[in-house]
């Protein structure tokens, strides 16, 4: 009999939430079928069956689980049990409906055609529960926050509760940096932008400003990492992610990595290996006319750098670059020096940074 245990998904969480069973208790499953989703503080991960058989659930939806915990078994099916059927196929133009969602539709007597109006590609049991709740209220709509959004909310709440943050902004003439980005774009035949140069510049400051990359251990101690690991905010409309660029990379390599991250964000392909280990964050707010954005400082980090939309100013182009910082670890004068160093790098860029 096979076992499904909770894997260790990251080094930040000691427990996870079982969000949903994707197969009913006792249902036949195939090898490599997704059977459950787990929510971590950063993302949602699917667990798969390692063999064919009948699923026996041992933990209820919504329960907290720890790494190594046994949450299900997959055993032989009895002669009366149906063999695993073919993969569900979505109706033409409609979303795919999972078996648990179909079972709940039948239980509630809801027309399966109702789910066609849901803004999801895969209809799960939780989507049907939300639909039923909206129909029961008779007015307005309710919406269940996604597991990812709830994780973002917990991180923001913890940051505001635990970190006494300061914030300082500097104006930077980014005309030379934008020219460098255009030159690299033509040479590499790959889009290079101001965010790529900023990430490279932040990483380069690690040796001169190590405390800005530190982790507070207790009231008297910080851990200073050997290398920079820069998280970058990515939001392609399906939720905010902060994947990490490790070590010091040249601008072309950073541009390639960020392009890969954007593809993963579009298709929901991020795993814990992409999202963990950062020691500073660059937050991108480069939609037109955005002139101020104050980022949160991730718990366990000291600083977050914010880049806003470049603005024309006479014959030059300027951008505001802000730094949110944990005042327990760095002070205002050090912050000014850090921002001045960033400003100098971007106003006198080299193509490799």
TrEMBL record:
One of its GO terms (cellular component) is cytoplasm. Keywords: Acyltransferase, Lipoyl, Transferase. GO terms for molecular function: acetyltransferase activity; lipoic acid binding. Its EC number is 2.3.1.-. Belongs to the 2-oxoacid dehydrogenase family. The keyword Transferase applies. Residues 142-351 form the 2-oxoacid dehydrogenase acyltransferase catalytic domain. Its cofactor is (R)-lipoate. This is Dihydrolipoamide acetyltransferase component of pyruvate dehydrogenase complex. Residues 3-73 form the Lipoyl-binding domain. It comes from the Bacteria. It comes from Nonomuraea solani. It is an enzyme of class 2 (transferase).
